[in-house]
Write a structure and sequence with these properties.
Layout lengths: L1 E6 L2 E6 L2 E6 L7 E3 L28 E4 L2 E4 L7 E6 L5 H13 L4 E4 L18 H16 L3 E5 L31 H16 L1 E2 L4 E2 L6 E5 L16 H16 L2 H8 L29 H6 L4 H28 L6 E2 L10 H8 L5 E7 L41 H8 L6 E8 L9 H12 L3 E7 L19 H4 L2 H10 L7 E7 L23 E6 L15 E2 L4 E3 L5 E4 L4 E5 L3 E6 L6 E2 L3 E4 L5 E7 L11 E7 L2 E4 L2 E8 L5 E7 L2 E7 L3 E6 L7 E5 L5 E4 L2 E4 L2 E6 L7 E5 L2
């Protein structure tokens, strides 16, 4: 069981019987002011456009084949990116896209297509020419830069139907959460919008959207599921009518229904509930699908399982018919349903429906901001946990909790459907969590281990570096310690420096067991996702799951999981991850916990928390022989004058929320990483070193030492940098 205690600025975690204590992060005397810089697009060691072929479409469309994404000519492809905001002028957009490519981003995502309707549109099928022009131009410029696009077609929280749509349950128009699964008119309108968009001609490319390979993937629906939220109230009668019809088709009458649903002779129906004489059967609340509820209400078991079947059929019908509508319009790109989940174990039922499409997409966050209404999106008013994910590994946990209360890497790994392409189209370890810099390295390294096909951080919302931390929790350019790691992450990701692991455990469900009212307990502890590949198998036939003995890769005393590839190590007790490959060597987490010895790199640092990367930047050449090395060394950041304080409010983690007593202002202060970094290199005697600015321009020379064939870099606070270039001239 995971227990935490926070007092007087000291945080303690107890995992099992092991207690780990650490002081809070913060900008200290070793911090330096972040200095943004405009990119002149000169050739520098930070330029990751070398990994991104432009324009898009040289190998045809992206396809889903053999459980992976490949282009039509068979060339494999893997995506690393961030959702963007296409606002600003066309000139600003051009600069932003060039910067994205230089930072190693080959894919972005757009939702917000609800804004394609003019303000005075009478129906949802009347489009705004200016809004379409913005998207047309974006698609064209993305293609020129080799950056692909995921289109998310419907964001139901923001989409408002119009009175002229003539939806009986929504005569005045407005939002209609979940109605697409229930109401045929709603579904037909949304699917007509899909067809209209892919038949739309883009004057900047001379192609219909359906014929443009820049559109790599399409999502039908953003963050909605019949297994999670509530269907809009005005559609409840229609939903219950559909459920009654479904039950009547299966059981014929009330006698058959009561016989089928009775548990120990007790039918779970109240007076007036049934399938005859215009009766209805209310649906159980999604939050009721727990072992605790079933223990208190055992008579609901069979009723609940039928509800799961019914909802899965509704979801699957909508998603597959939407894909069919887009295919008829000419779409060639792979299609996914949605990226959401259910409350608890029905997620696996929801995933069954997702597995009927072309690929699986998920969303996930660590320390997603909390609070009231729109106040939670701003760091100045959000509540947050301020805990490091790197320590969030429970040795005994065997089922997922969801909703941002557990290790993001582990959760997403167990959500993949084995044998299908997998993307994480939104993820973030969010501001103002002081440990948020950890996210990129952990998601990239373990995403490679798991074989994920794409990961997009949410989101790229500024055109370039911000001087201060972002006002919102998700702005990549306003979380400088995160975005500054992108060159190292991109090189590792595209070269696949971390090998994909074999499957070590899977959750297997057949066409009956997937609906049973049982918790989704995994056959091994969840930390197995840090050892090898894991996920669902949603097969039609019952069979034994693959379950390998991974105990030799786990040290219970230090809470350390080693990957079966031998390249990754996650020590949750110390809060340190090591990435140890030929071309990428990295230490992420609590740097001062101990000296760090990797195959090619050793590090001693007094810094409490940070990330240090050594990246070979000569194609596929390893660190030992590369002529050009990039050292990336980042610590936490705070705005000038930023202050944290603990609240008296408790979170779902069982710990107090924190908030900002003062948001502070720019410049952001970055903690300088100091210490001794040793690199084994056959070119040690020839190496020279410079500090770099944030776009890769050389600033000041830094002396190096050579000891026994190792080049030694003494990182000092006075260097005021996160980048060092070591090169043989």
């Amino acid at each position: 069981m995971l227990r935490r205690f926070i007092s007087s600025g000291v945080i303690a975690l107890a995992v099992g019987s092991v207690w780990v204590m650490y002081l809070r992060a913060g900008a200290g005397e070793s911090s330096f002011a972040f200095q943004p810089a405009t990119d002149g697009f000169q050739a520098t060691v930070l330029d990751c456009s070398r990994f991104i072929e432009a324009p898009t479409g040289k190998h045809g469309f992206v396809t889903a084949k053999g459980g992976r994404f490949v282009f039509q000519d068979g060339t494999p492809v893997r995506f690393w990116g961030g959702q963007m905001d296409a606002g600003g002028t066309k000139e600003q957009l051009g600069y932003t896209l060039r910067r994205m490519r230089r930072q190693g981003i080959d894919i972005t995502r757009q939702h917000g297509l609800e804004n394609l309707n003019a303000r005075d549109a009478k129906t949802s099928l009347e489009y705004d020419a200016a809004a379409l022009d913005r998207l047309d131009y974006l698609i064209a410029k993305l293609g020129e830069n080799g950056i692909y696009l995921i289109l998310d077609l419907d964001y139901p929280l923001n989409f408002h139907f119009r009175p002229g749509d003539n939806i009986p349950a929504l005569p005045e128009g407005g939002p209609a959460l979940g109605a697409e699964f229930v109401d045929d008119k709603v579904a037909s309108i949304l699917q007509q919008r899909m067809a209209d968009l892919f038949r739309h001609y883009n004057p900047y490319t001379g192609k219909r959207w359906a014929d443009d390979p820049t559109i790599a993937m399409v999502e039908v629906l953003n963050e909605d599921s019949l297994f999670f939220g509530e269907v809009a109230k005005s559609f409840h009668p229609e939903l219950e009518d559909k459920f009654a019809a479904w039950l009547r088709n299966k059981y014929h009458d009330d006698v058959g229904l009561k016989r089928a649903w009775s548990v120990d002779g007790k039918p779970p129906l109240a007076e007036g509930q049934g399938v005859e004489n215009q009766e209805r059967v209310p649906l159980l609340h999604n939050g009721d699908f727990t072992e605790k509820y079933l223990t208190a209400h055992p008579e609901q078991k069979l009723r609940g399982e039928d509800q799961l079947r019914f909802c899965e059929e509704l979801e699957e019908r909508y998603f597959t018919s939407s894909r069919d509508a887009m295919r008829r319009a000419g779409l060639k790109a792979p299609v996914s349903g949605t990226n959401w989940q259910a409350h608890g174990f029905p997620t696996r039922v929801h995933m069954l429906g997702q597995s009927k499409l072309d690929y699986v997409d998920r969303h996930g966050y660590w320390d997603h901001p909390d609070g009231e209404g729109n106040l939670k999106w701003r760091i100045a008013t959000a509540r947050f946990h301020d805990l490091p994910m790197i320590k969030a590994v429970d040795p005994d946990q065997d089922r997922l909790k969801y909703l941002g209360v557990e290790n993001l890497v582990i959760e997403k790994a167990w959500e993949q459907v084995l044998g299908m392409p997998m993307t994480i189209s939104e993820w973030n370890t969010c501001l103002p969590n002081e440990y948020s810099l950890e996210g990129g390295g952990l998601m990239a390294a373990y995403g490679l281990l798991q074989g994920w096909d794409g990961a997009l951080q949410f989101g790229y919302f500024s055109g370039d570096f911000r001087r201060s931390l972002g006002e919102g929790s998700f702005d990549m350019l306003g979380n400088q310690p995160q975005i500054l790691q992108f060159p190292a992450l991109a090189a590792m990701w595209y070269r696949q420096d971390v090998k994909e692991a074999e499957v070590v455990a899977e959750s297997v469900y057949d066409s009956e067991s997937v609906y049973r009212w049982t918790e989704d307990r995994k056959p091994v502890p969840l930390w197995a996702a840090l050892v090898g590949k894991v996920g669902y198998r949603l097969d039609g036939q019952a069979r034994k799951p693959v379950v390998k003995d991974v105990r030799r890769y786990w040290d219970a005393q230090s809470l350390t999981a080693r990957s079966i590839t031998g390249e990754l190590s996650w020590n949750a007790s110390a809060g340190v991850v090591h990435i140890d490959t030929a071309r990428t060597q990295a230490v992420i987490g609590f740097l001062s916990a101990a000296p760090h010895e990797l195959e090619t790199v050793s590090l001693k640092s007094p810094n409490r928390f940070g990330a240090v990367w050594v990246t070979a930047m000569d194609g596929m050449e390893p660190v030992r022989s590369a002529r050009h090395l990039l050292v990336t060394a980042v610590g936490p950041a705070r705005n000038t004058g930023m202050e944290y304080e603990r609240t008296d409010q408790m979170s779902r983690l069982g710990t107090p929320f924190w908030r900002l007593k003062s948001e502070g202002a720019g410049p952001a202060l970055l903690e300088a990483i100091s210490g001794e970094l040793r690199i084994k290199s056959g070119r040690a005697e020839q190496m020279k070193c410079w500090t770099l600015d944030v776009v890769g321009r050389r600033r000041d020379p830094v002396p190096l030492r050579v000891v026994s064939g190792e080049v030694v870099l003494d990182m000092r606070p006075e260097h005021k940098t996160v980048y060092y270039e070591l090169s043989v001239e």
